[in-house]
Amino acid sequence: MTVPAATLSASGSDNAGDADSILERQRARESSARTYARSFPIVPARAHGMTIEGTDGRRYLDCLSGAGTLALGHNHPVVREALRRTIDSGAPLHVLDLATPEKDDFTDALFETLPKEFADRARVHFCGPAGTDAVEAALKLMQTATGRRGVLAFTGAYHGMTAGALAATGSVAVKEPVPGGGAAGGEVTRLPYPYAYRCPFGVGGERGAELAATYTERLLDDPSGGVVRPAAMIVEAVQGEGGAVPAPDGWLREMRRITRERDIPLIVDEVQTGVGRTGAYWAVEHSGVVPDAMVMSKAIGGGLPLAVIVYDRDYDGWLPGAHTGTFRGNTLAMATGAATLRYVTREGLAERAATVGARLTARLEGLRSELPLIGDVRGRGLMIGVEIVDPEGPLDSCGSRPVAPGTAARVQEGCLARGLILELGGRFGSTVRLLPPLVITDEEAESVLERLTEAIAEASASATSSKESNVSKSSRPTGVSGRAA
Ligand SMILES: Cc1ncc(COP(=O)(O)O)c(C=O)c1O
């Protein structure tokens, strides 16, 4: 791998030997399910803002941000100060779910960010500290409240790896090896998510979204449609792992209407989209939809593990201990989370994400004519996807070319060689995903564009000679859990 001088720090590569032996031990000892460590064979030693420095002294721009967790980048002063203050205060670091000043303050900070209509009627439940546990909690809450079992979930969805969340997830690659495909988590009806570039109805555009809504409504009302009235619908306003696919606002409003008219609770999974990432504090706000429950994790802990559900009090029919768990009182995460939530508001970082995201998206869109490997550029705010295609493949009925996962993997490798970390996602892992921290500077945004453009140009040059690597449409694992959607 060649690394441009610009990505080498003054300390050079004195510890390169250490890095190699650490990587080798990790390969030998860790489970074969490890994922990011495969795509990024680096050993981070230090990190600040958007930059990670490896033990070998190489520096990388981190456009993955802990899969969207690090809204403020690495080691932000606000987060470090909250950590130091809390540790120095002598506060207990673990007290199950007892009331603490930190929990009280976090709850205040969180409720201040919520749409008023929702906040006024909201209850919060602290979950085991992972998005997937919060998804389980939300599904279980609605199953308890409605006395129904089934769940409505979407093509391309990602909700996590535990049984119920996996059942609601779309990725066949991660479900197929598990007998029952995670069905232990419940009965899931799969509905079409509007994805203009690979429209489930083969028409794309607004018409595709209209058909997706019509299909949903008619299926639910069809007495022979096979769908027993479900406990909930769960949806992402922008699919993250699914390839940065934003749902049209009008379609989301239709989902709200359809669910409300049929007394089906609507759960919006904001695990990846929350805390300013899409250009609004919560992605669902773009559409004006008020859901019945929101699932939150990742950025709400300021980089430390934290997950909650927030929901309308009418659904609070749980008995004490209905969704318990040992690690539901992470004092440090509540302190760093509260500090992060307030900083994002104070500094207008959602607006900044909208501005920088629009600029990046427009620039990438502008490259399409000269780099036909770029099939589609989409996203919202700083959640951007660049779908890599075979430029010589046939056009389908939506005017889209076939996916090119092998080429996308080469783009990712080319980025890493240029000191840029970014992940693949979407169908067959063919979408390059940009998830920079919300504090990305204009200069960093330019560097990201420059390195990504070079990597795509390089992959274009080699694409013709290695066409066969795309043909198999490999289901190469991408993301946290090999979760190419
Ligand atoms: C939308 C969404 N829901 C749920 C999850 C699961 O969160 P976790 O990996 O913390 O379990 C993720 C993780 O990427 C996600 O993007």
Could you tell me how far the N terminus lies from the C terminus, measured between alpha carbons in angstroms? Answer: 29 Å
Structural class: alpha/beta
Could you name the ranges where pLDDT drops below 50 across 5 or more consecutive residues? Answer: 1-13, 471-477, 480-485
Content of β-strand: 5-15%
CATH architectural label of the largest domain: 3-Layer(aba) Sandwich
| Largest beta sheet: strand ordering | 4-12-11-10-7-5-6
**Relevant CATH superfamily of the largest domain:** Type I PLP-dependent aspartate aminotransferase-like (Major domain)
Report the strand count: 17
CATH topology of the largest domain: Aspartate Aminotransferase, domain 2
Q: CATH first level of the largest domain: which class?
A: Alpha Beta
Number of domains: 2
Q: Give a short account of the largest sheet.
A: 7 strands, mixed
Separate helix tally: 16
Helix fraction?
25-40%
Identify every distinct bound molecule in the structure, by name, code or SMILES.
pyridoxal-5'-phosphate
Overall residue-averaged pLDDT value: 92
Radius of gyration using CA atoms only: 22 Å
The best one-word shape is globular
